[in-house]
Amino acid sequence: MKRIVILSIVLLAVLALTLACQPTKVPTQPTPVPTAIAVFEPTSSFAAGAFPPPMPPIEQHNNAWLITDCLGCHDKDAGEAPTIKHKDLPEIYLNVNCRTCHVPKPAE
Amino acid sequence: MNDITRREFIKWSAMAAVATMAGCSAPQQAAPAPQATARPTVEAAKEWHKSVCRFCGTGCGVQLGIADGKLVALRGDPDHPTTKGLVCAKALFLPKIVYSPDRLTKPQIRKAGKLVDATWDEAMNLVADKFADAIKTAGPDSVAYYGSGQALAEESYLANRLFKGGIGTNNLDGNPRLCMASAVGGYTTTYGKDEPMGSYDDIDHARTFFLIGSNTAEAHPVLFDRILDRKSKNANVQIILVDPRKTPVRRVTDIYLDPIPGFDLDIFHAMAQVIIAEKLHAPDFITKHLVFRKVVDNQNVDVTFDEYVKFLEAFTPEKAAEKCGVPATKIRQAARMFAQGPTMSLWCMGLNQRTVGVWANNLIHNLHLITGQFGKPGATPFSLTGQPNACGGVRDTGALAHLLPYGRVIANADHRAQMEKLWGAPAGKIKAQDGLNTIDMFKALGEDKLKAMIIITTNPGQSLPNANKYRDAMGKERANKPFIVSVDAYPTRTTELADVVLPAAMWSEKEGVFGMSERRYQLMPKLISAPGEARSDFDILLDFAARLEERGVVAKGYIAGKFKTTADVWEEMKEASRNTAYDFTGMSRERMKKERGIRWPVLDETHPGTNRRFVKGDDPLLDKGPFADANLKPGDIKIYTGANNKAIVWLRPSKDPAEPADKDFPFVLSTGRVLEHWHTATMTMKAPELRRAQPEAYCEVHPLDAEKLGIKTGDMVKLTSRRGDVTVRARVVDTPRPGMVFVPMHWYEDNALINKVTIDAYDPASRQPEFKVCAVKVEKGKA
Fold first, then answer.
1. Which one from B50, B90, B246, B443 is the annotated catalytic residue?
2. Which domains does chain B show, CATH number per domain?
């Protein structure tokens, strides 16, 4: 069984190599998995990292301006959208425009 | 599957895929896009200090994390009374901006056409020689200072002192002339003195927000967040937006009016007409606090309320609809909602950057005054500011060509005498004539009427309208080309034109005061060192003044030896404010180090600062000093700066923009901001994340226009005006009105520098140029 699994991984890698190394294709970087990277102080819960994660270039982000646009996916696990990690911030933070802090990251 | 779990399988697969991708980079790959760099974390900071953001006029409180003398993190200050810990992306990336590798670190002198490194002594001697020679041979009015709403308040005050009281020229102006002068003119002509009477606290009480020509969501995002917060918690809060472009604010708007660009004055008159016709006005407030005035043959003439009502008959909603291109029903709805209140008006460049900017400001004040939406929680007219220190640093210190500190004006002999006495300048040293305003100053430069100019913390080589003309004025080689000094932290489109470039310390590399939109003065501490040999504008001005004293063009000891630090200057500034409407004598430096800003007026160390001016019980000037009135009860209003303690409702006629669209140039161009960049982007482009978010200039074209022109999103479009052209990428979107195009103002490349296209016609009252309206033709361009 173990051998079958390892073989599957090798085959997957070969397949990926074949697809990714097409000479006619513009090389792309792997789409980063958006993660909530804000760091919090245990006492105040205010984001201290200062650089909130950017919005990756997906269709849903194109016209996202209001928090209602964002929470549809990010309020709870919805597909691959990460759940916001700063729900414990004061209420004003939950009524704001997410793009105040989260800048878009356009496709390369 | 017992030996390998599902989790491990996914992990291994992902590792294999990433390794595959990483290993397959094609050798001919294009230049890499800017990548995010390391992110500071709270763990890295050894100490935290309160400070203030240095971008827009919101004045967000921030906390700075410092380790080993370096800025390693920034976060919103949760204890800040008005911004409550909110900040925007521009502030969050300030640590990267400060440490940008292209910071200027050495003085430079232009030799044989090239800027080469020099010592401070060489550079400052050259600057002082050129200025002294000009003053001696051509008089004090042959030199000029062009300053900034980003310089510290103490720096602008010191420059004002040096030029007006030391050198003896009023040729001192600054970039607030490009953004806020019409708001100044509006407040001054209506209430007698500048600056808002309300504060950000009013956001938490307003029921109606009247937003005019303000893309608050992008230009003042933290204030927009407070409005959103207010609206989300109160179902009866409504927003009216007047803007020809559907900015992101439109997404939360209840009534949207999109006038033809430059044709909105009639809307405001029509709203007033509806308010009075439907008896929604406030007769008692009108009787107690207002006078009505018009201009006839250049003379102010007072009129009655009935004459004002008669005047408004020409501005019914139907007539306004015809002229402005908005439905009459919406004008009526807006008027009723406005009158219901409490109403807070917020406006910005869409109203100010116009040839009728002062009049437009007057008409917003008119609406507040006739409805009594004034001096009550949530009821106030509030002009938003574009720079961190346009208010406290330039408007209040009087660092414009027609002003003197704290509400004084050049034209008033008593005011000049007061400042000469305080400054120790001989009587008559301050000239009685206004100096050159920004546009006239750069025109004079192009005509070689000025011999030397120093430009501090601003970038007119990019930010002036009709930029080709004024770039030539600054940099085009000619026999009598004026001598230009540029003081900046970064290379800009201005430093490239200068004869001497002086490297400046920025933001947290120096200590001083920022005064933001709501009259709050905040002390920014010095927390880190400037790179290389960079010095603060304050130190440069002190050095400059001392060398001018040595050369005999400024009296000995006028500045040299009198001030060593910005704190020394602050003491004199407090004295200059004493017994004026701006009195902040209660703001000691020690107090400011502890508190998160204080709103003037504040007369003693125990007063908490003023939330609403002109309101008994809140404004200390109604209790003590020259404006005190013991007959008032708490909550009573007295507009003590006004004409006979009254505000003026102005009967302003309708007037078209300087250059509406026509047959040859059939589109109207308007410029503005995006959230991720600020002004000429010399700072925000230094943060890879901000640059990547908005990497390229663009032009918004309405789909109906795009179809006629055969333009689609991604095509290059050429915009041509009577002054210049740019070629940028098209975005076909329905945000602008049909017939209008929009280009952000931030990009500095030659093909995208939109101010080559904009017009330098200015408001005759405020001298502020009409960036928001000019005629262009639009055609498909070449990449």
1. B90
2. 50-96 (2.20.25.90), 108-179+390-552 (3.40.50.740), 181-383 (3.40.228.10), 667-780 (2.40.40.20)
pTM of the model: 0.90
Q: How far apart are CA B224 and CA A96, in angstroms?
A: 8
pLDDT tens track for A45-86: 333 445 678 888 888 887 777 777 888 888 876 677 888 877
pLDDT, tens digit, 9 for 90 and up, residues B400-440:
999 999 999 999 999 999 999 999 999 999 999 999 999 99
Concerning whether B587 is annotated as a catalytic residue, the answer is: no
B49 phi and psi angles, rounded to 5 deg: -130, 145
CB proximity B71 to A under 8 Å: no
Q: How far apart are CA A1 and CA B39, in angstroms?
A: 43
CA B23 to chain centre: 49
Is the CB of A29 less than 8 angstroms away from the CB of B21? yes
Beta bridge partners of B117: B108
CA–CA min distance B706, chain A (Å): 20
Residue B386 annotated among the catalytic residues of the structure: yes
The Cα–Cα gap between B707 and B709 comes to 5
Candidate from A28, A48, A66 with C-beta closest to B42? A48
Domain ranges of chain A: 30-100
Contact criterion met (CB < 8 Å) for A101 and B224: no
CB neighbours of residue B430 within 10 Å: 23
Q: Is the pLDDT of residue A92 over 60?
A: yes
ipTM value greater than 0.85: no
Known catalytic residue at B180 = yes
